[in-house]
């Protein structure tokens, strides 16, 4: 074999473990954050006694693990706050939609 045909094995990425307390963060927020970050990390979840452990495995070796962790934590917080706002404004959104559709003239 020629040297050009031999490829070096790619070392497996070491997962970044982040624990999120169940009392502070909704599981849905963790899932939404994982979806947003999926181009940069593969995320797996483990139940712990106090909450959820997220294991982030970088998709590329080029990303700094500290930055990936920081960005994931920020995204979880953002998604958790979005869920809170959704819950707090649900009745207003429902009323607005009900009013909007009641004036369409489509009702019998």
What keywords describe this structure?
three-stranded antiparallel beta sheet, TATA-Binding Protein, 108 residues
Helix content range: 40-55%
Number of strands: 3
Measured between the Cα atoms of the first and last residue, the distance is 79 Å
What is the ordering of alpha helices and beta strands? Answer: EHEEH
Output the CATH class name. Alpha Beta
Overall 3D geometry?
Answer: elongated
Summarize the structure in words.
The protein has a single domain, classed as TATA-Binding Protein. It is 44% helix and 19% strand. The chain contains 2 helices and 3 strands, in the order βαββα. The protein has helices at 27-36, 65-102, and strands at residues 16-21, 41-47, 51-58. α1 crosses α2. The longest helix has 38 residues, at 65-102.
Short description:
By secondary structure, the chain is an alpha+beta fold.
Summarize the SSE layout with pairings:
Layout (H helix, E strand, L loop, with lengths): L15 E6 L5 H10 L4 E7 L3 E8 L6 H38 L6
Antiparallel strand pairs: 1-3, 2-3
Helix pairs in contact: 1-2
